[in-house]
Automatic annotation (TrEMBL):
<dbReference type="InterPro" id="IPR006683">
    <property type="entry name" value="Thioestr_dom"/>
</dbReference>
<dbReference type="InterPro" id="IPR040170">
    <property type="entry name" value="Cytosol_ACT"/>
</dbReference>
<protein>
    <submittedName>
        <fullName>Acyl-CoA hydrolase</fullName>
    </submittedName>
</protein>
<feature type="domain" description="HotDog ACOT-type">
    <location>
        <begin position="8"/>
        <end position="120"/>
    </location>
</feature>
<dbReference type="Pfam" id="PF03061">
    <property type="entry name" value="4HBT"/>
</dbReference>
<dbReference type="GO" id="GO:0005829">
    <property type="term" value="C:cytosol"/>
</dbReference>
<dbReference type="GO" id="GO:0009062">
    <property type="term" value="P:fatty acid catabolic process"/>
</dbReference>
<keyword id="KW-0378">Hydrolase</keyword>
<dbReference type="InterPro" id="IPR029069">
    <property type="entry name" value="HotDog_dom_sf"/>
</dbReference>
<dbReference type="GO" id="GO:0052816">
    <property type="term" value="F:long-chain fatty acyl-CoA hydrolase activity"/>
</dbReference>
<dbReference type="InterPro" id="IPR033120">
    <property type="entry name" value="HOTDOG_ACOT"/>
</dbReference>
<dbReference type="GO" id="GO:0006637">
    <property type="term" value="P:acyl-CoA metabolic process"/>
</dbReference>
Length: 159
């Protein structure tokens, strides 16, 4: 394991064409399907970052901002923005793209925590996050701020 890895080492983008089997009776993406895509993309980002198998430990509040319609392309993007000793925090965003019109919009966002495992399935240390340029620093800082705001919103609802 390397001592450090960069945010861009983890950056992952996948695309999915929304087909009828993954839609509800309104022709829009099923929430569970979108969460499945997000979990896979986040896990790949975590594995790229640490070079080990990773498992999902938690997923924060999910914001479904707008629907993905049948025939649109779902673009799922993930990157590591924070690490612990064996845990990796990943920001996952989804946007819908209409390839015929060239239009896109944000649809879903959440934060996932993964745990790195060694070959025996035991939690194992992960590299420290390095953000060597301004773009990576801005992505990390933005994700940290968004997560803090999201957590504050949860606390406010409880009070």
């Amino acid at each position: 394991m390397a001592d450090t890895a960069t945010l861009m080492d983890s950056y992952t983008e996948m695309t999915e064409l929304l087909l009828p089997n993954d839609t509800n009776n309104l022709g829009r993406a099923l929430g569970g399907v979108v969460l499945h895509w997000m979990d896979i993309c986040g896990a790949i980002a975590a594995m790229r970052f640490c070079g080990n198998q990773c498992v999902t430990a938690s997923m924060d509040h999910v914001d479904f901002i707008s629907p993905i319609d049948r025939g649109e392309v779902a673009v799922v993007e993930a990157f590591v923005f924070e690490t612990g000793r064996t845990s990796i925090d990943v920001k996952v965003n989804v946007r819908a793209e209409d390839p015929r019109k060239g239009e896109e919009r944000e649809t879903t966002t959440s934060f996932f925590t993964f745990v790195a495992l060694d070959e025996n399935g035991t939690p194992t240390p992960v590299p420290n996050l390095d953000c060597p340029d301004e773009n990576q620093q801005a992505l990390r800082d933005s994700a940290r701020e968004e997560r803090l705001q999201q957590l504050q919103n949860v606390v406010d609802r409880i009070d």
